[in-house]
Structures are given as structure tokens and as C-alpha cells.
Amino acid sequence: MPHASDEEIIVFDGDGKKLARSRQPHEGTVLSSEFGDFAGDCLVVTRLGHVRGGEGTYFVQWGGGNKVKISEKDLRRPADEQADGFKTLKKTDLAPPALD
Q1: How do residues 12-32 score in pLDDT, each as one tens digit?
Q2: N or C, which end of the chain is more exposed by having fewer CB within 10 Å?
Q3: Torsion over CA of 73, 76, 85 and 34, rounded to 10 degrees?
């Protein structure tokens, strides 16, 4: 499987084929207390162009970490709407599943 470098974000289709990639900026926005578990963390927005539609489900990988499943609807939501989602999200919601 392809992997992202330390500063890349990569979007894959459901079969693992790389569709788009971009380097993340080194600056972001520090989240306020209204972001709950993520207060004090830095939010970085990376825009990717030319991601073909119609896949239904995509996988996104940041900096070589775990691939995260995301719907096409969520992938294409405006950045401010995606950021607002962190207000009610818990860090444990993003943790990889425990191995038995």
C-alpha cells in the first residue's frame, strides 16, 4: 500500500489507488475551548483538487498514519463545516481500533 510522507495528505479510492495528494502547510489555527477535547490543538486545512467523484467511500492518510475512511459527502464539505465537526468529536473517536 502507498504511504504518505511526514507532511503529505493523500486521498485513496476504496481499492487503495492514490487519487490525489498535497503537502500540508506548516501553520494552522489553535483551537479554542469550544472545541472540547481538541482545545489547544492546531487545526490545519489542506485543499486537494482533482479528486474524482463517484467513489462513495474514500480513504485519507495524513503523514503516513492510519488511513481513515470518509464518505464523499464529508470529503467535499467546506473546510469551516469540517472544522465545526471537531466541536462535538472526542479524541477517542479517532483512535484506531484496539487489537484483540
Answers
A1: 999 999 999 988 766 788 999
A2: C
A3: -160
Cell of 70: 470518509
Q: Classify burial at 75, counting beta carbons within 10 Å of its beta carbon; exposed 0-12, middle 13-18, buried 19 or more.
A: middle
Question: Of 43, 2, 36, which is closest to residue 21 (Cα–Cα)?
Answer: 2
Q: Indicate the pTM of the whole model.
A: 0.71
For the segment 70-91, the average pLDDT, to the nearest whole number, is 90
Q: What is the bridge-based pairing of β-strands 8-12 and 18-23?
A: antiparallel
For residue 82, how many C-alpha atoms fall within 13 Å in the half-sphere facing its CB? 15
The number of CA neighbours under 13 Å toward the Cβ of 54 is 2
Grid cell 473517536 is found at 93
